[in-house]
Design a protein that fits this description.
about 350 residues; alpha/beta; Rossmann fold; 3-stranded parallel β-sheet; elongated
C-alpha cells in the first residue's frame, strides 16, 4: 500500500493559512506574522513535510544549474576525448564549490537544430540558467544568433565567437605555432610542410595560419601539395608523411614537418623511419597537445602544451560573471600555449 506524501496544501490546511502564505514561509519571505510562522512550522514538523526544491525554483524563475554542452565530430576520436577531458575537469572543479549543479549534453557538430532546441528547451523550462558550449568548431552562426535573440546566457570554450567576438575562452594556437616556426628558422630550416588535423576545426585553422605566416616571415618554401588536412590519428599522419616522402625528390623534400597534433606526429615519425631517414638529422618533426606519449617517443617529441584545464575553469568563471551580470559585453579571453622543445628537432642539413 502506497503512502501519499504530504504537500503544501496539507500544510496550509493544518496551519489554517493560505497556500500562498506557506509558499512565502518556505521561500524565506519575512512578511509573515509570527503567529502564522509558528503554526506553519508546527504543521511542517507534524506532517514531516519536505519542500519540493525543484518546484520552488521553477515557481521563482530560478534554476541552480548550468548546461555543459559538448560539440564533437561523429564518431568521436581519441584525440577529441583527450582534448575535452581536462576542459571538463576545469569546469567541474569550479562548480564543485558553487551552488550550481552541472547538466551534460552532447551532439555532433552538424546537428545544429538539435543543439539549439536542446539548449532553448531547457532554458525555457527553467531547468538551466545558462550554457557552456565546449566546441573546437565555430558554432553555426544561425544557432548563435538565435541564442542571442532568446537571451540565453552562454560561453563558448575552444572556439571564437565569430558573430559578436565576445563571451569565449580560446587558446592562442597562432602564436604557439609561430614559436615553433621561429625555432625551426633558427635551426636553418627552409623547406617545411604541415600535416594538419580536421579542416573545419578552429584550432587547426589557427595552427595553419601560424604556420603560413611563419613561412612568409622567414622566407621558407612550402609546397601546397605537402600541406594537408585529414584524420587526427597515427594512421593519418603516417599515410600523409609517407606520401610527402614518396613524391618529393630527396634534395627537395621538407627538412621539417609541423603536425596538427601529437598523434599525427607519431605517425609521421614512423613513416620517416620506414623510409630509412633519421629524426632529427634528416627531418625534424613537431607535434601539438603534449599528450603523455610525447616524452616517451624516440626521439622525444617537440610539441605545444595546452592550458586545457584553465580553459574550462575560466569558461566556468565567465559563465558565473554572466549569471551575476558582472560580465562586460566585450569580454573574451585568449590563453597562452607553451612550446616545449625536445630532441625531435635539430639543425637542418
Amino acid at each position: 500500500m502506497s503512502v501519499t506524501k504530504p504537500n503544501m496544501k496539507d500544510v496550509a490546511k493544518l496551519a489554517n493559512v493560505s497556500i500562498g502564505t506557506v509558499s512565502k514561509f518556505i521561500n524565506g519571505n519575512n512578511s509573515i506574522t509570527p503567529a502564522n510562522r509558528a503554526r506553519i512550522r508546527e504543521a511542517i514538523e507534524k506532517l514531516k513535510y519536505t519542500p519540493n526544491m525543484a518546484a520552488q525554483k521553477l515557481a521563482s524563475g530560478q534554476a541552480d544549474s548550468v548546461l555543459m554542452y559538448i560539440v564533437h565530430e561523429d564518431p568521436v576520436s581519441t584525440a577529441s576525448w583527450l582534448y575535452d577531458l581536462p576542459i571538463i575537469q576545469g569546469i567541474s572543479k569550479f562548480y564543485s564549490n558553487s551552488k550550481y549543479s552541472l547538466q551534460l549534453a552532447m551532439d555532433p557538430v552538424h546537428a545544429t537544430d538539435s543543439i539549439y532546441n536542446n539548449i532553448v528547451n531547457r532554458y525555457q523550462q527553467k531547468s538551466i540558467s545558462g550554457v557552456i558550449i565546449i566546441s573546437p568548431w565555430h558554432l553555426d552562426s544561425k544557432t548563435l544568433i538565435r541564442l542571442i535573440d532568446m537571451g540565453v546566457p552562454y560561453v563558448l570554450v575552444g572556439a571564437e565567437n565569430h558573430v559578436l567576438h565576445n563571451y569565449h575562452v580560446i587558446m592562442d594556437n597562432y602564436r604557439a605555432v609561430g614559436q615553433l616556426m621561429d625555432r625551426l628558422a633558427e635551426l636553418g630550416h627552409r623547406r617545411v610542410c604541415m600535416i594538419n588535423g580536421l579542416n573545419a576545426q578552429y584550432d587547426m585553422l589557427e595552427r595553419l595560419r601560424g604556420f603560413n605566416d611563419g613561412v612568409w616571415r622567414h622566407h621558407m618554401v612550402s609546397e601546397s601539395r605537402w600541406n594537408t588536412f585529414g584524420e587526427q590519428t597515427v594512421e593519418g599522419g603516417y599515410e600523409r608523411m609517407k606520401m610527402v616522402l614518396e613524391e618529393a625528390e630527396p634534395e627537395q623534400r621538407p627538412t621539417a614537418v609541423v603536425c596538427g597534433n601529437d598523434y599525427i606526429a607519431a605517425g609521421a615519425l614512423q613513416a620517416i623511419r620506414e623510409a630509412g631517414l633519421r629524426v632529427p638529422e634528416d627531418v625534424s618533426v613537431t607535434g601539438y597537445d603534449d599528450i603523455t606519449l610525447t616524452s616517451i617517443l624516440q626521439p622525444a617529441l617537440t610539441t605545444v602544451h595546452l592550458p586545457a584545464f584553465d580553459l574550462g575553469l575560466q569558461g566556468a568563471e565567465m559563465m558565473q560573471r554572466r549569471l551575476n551580470q558582472q560580465c562586460r559585453e566585450s569580454e573574451a579571453i585568449t590563453l597562452s600555449c607553451e612550446a616545449i622543445f625536445r630532441s625531435s628537432i635539430g639543425k637542418a642539413k
